[in-house]
Amino acid sequence: xxxxxxxxxxxxxxxxxxxxxxxxxxxxxxxxxxxxxxxxxxxxxxxxxxxxxxxxxxxxxxxxxxxxxxxxxxxxxxxxxxxxxxxxxxxxxxxxxxxxxxxxxxxxxxxxxxxxxxxxxxxxxxxxxxxxxxxxxxxxxxxxxxxxxxxxxxxxxxxxxxx
Length: 163
Description:
- Helix content is 67%, strand content 7%.
- It is built from six helices and three strands.
- The protein has a three-stranded antiparallel β-sheet.
- A hairpin with a 7-residue loop joins strand 2 and strand 3.
- It is elongated, with a radius of gyration of 18 Å.
């Protein structure tokens, strides 16, 4: 399996941001834009619906993963691990820390928490025994997939309410 380099992670993050922007644009294309033709009183309910949906998704993620702290850099690591898993690639602990924008020492603590929750496992890289490889466990991959199924359903119902 191929390893991710720092530039690969940066490219993946960029693509995730692009997808997020496309999804946001897609959702806004379904709704009238708050421009000169729409007064601020009419745009406010859409903003409130979007904020409510964002809060709902965060709460859903928290309840879906139980006691695991799934926000910020830890969530970024889980997304990177899921993407690597889907593409048949592996990530090192330092790749994950770099991708999440945290120092390696903090990243290692976060990886330990993810591993403690049974969502990932660490192994020694056979090609370079100084490196630690981190992979989602089967349970971790299933948990991520089921979260995204729930999230997609919530987004669809949220957008249909907001329209």
